[in-house]
């Protein structure tokens, strides 16, 4: 083979190798440009700081007994740029050990409000006959889990409610 042809073949090989490296380099760069934000979107919730509970006054703690009673509270909410407040209801129970449970007033089946039936010592949801105990457990009917509840704390004799928790957790 003539030296001129060998040099041309080597140049062609170099060019091919250069374009192959360029192709894979650009493909890698494009993959990183698309992949890093997508991966970040999937992983970021795991690194997000948990929201601080906003504590809301329910009332004097000694007002509540082992007999569930309805309490009203003003619930602050944020919708976009607008701050909205609405009056909401919760059921408050003090258990025999003296711990307070604050139940959200919506059934865990389809969200109907329920009420306390003192004679039968049970919470009853009239929508589909869901029945819960005073401790929030499902006793019968379609509700898939115990009543949702709010975190609670007492300071200076006042009962506060915090973040909403899923029933059974
Ligand atoms: S919504 Fe309460 S039982 Fe269905």
From TrEMBL:
It comes from Candidatus Segetimicrobium genomatis. GO terms for molecular function: 2 iron, 2 sulfur cluster binding; metal ion binding; monooxygenase activity; oxidoreductase activity, acting on paired donors, with incorporation or reduction of molecular oxygen. Keywords: 2Fe-2S, Disulfide bond, Iron, Iron-sulfur, Membrane, Metal-binding, Transmembrane, Transmembrane helix. Its cofactor is [2Fe-2S] cluster. The chain crosses the membrane at residues 22-43. GO terms for cellular component: membrane. This is Rieske (2Fe-2S) protein. The keyword Transmembrane helix applies. PROSITE patterns: RIESKE. It holds the Pfam family Rieske. Residues 74-161 form the Rieske domain.
């Amino acid at each position: 083979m003539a030296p001129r042809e060998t040099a041309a073949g080597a140049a062609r090989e170099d060019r091919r190798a250069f374009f192959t490296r360029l192709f894979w380099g650009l493909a890698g760069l494009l993959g990183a440009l698309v992949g890093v934000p997508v991966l970040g979107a999937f992983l970021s919730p795991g690194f997000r700081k948990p929201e601080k509970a906003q504590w809301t006054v329910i009332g004097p703690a000694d007002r509540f007994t082992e007999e569930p009673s309805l309490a009203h509270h003003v619930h602050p909410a944020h919708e976009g740029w607008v701050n909205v407040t609405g009056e909401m209801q919760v059921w408050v129970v003090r258990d025999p050990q003296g711990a307070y449970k604050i139940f959200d007033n919506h059934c865990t089946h389809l969200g109907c409000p329920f009420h306390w039936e003192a004679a039968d010592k049970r919470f009853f949801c009239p929508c589909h006959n869901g029945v819960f105990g005073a401790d929030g457990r499902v006793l019968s009917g379609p509700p898939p889990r115990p009543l949702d509840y709010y975190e609670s704390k007492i300071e200076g004799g006042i009962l506060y409610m915090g973040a909403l928790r899923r029933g059974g957790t």
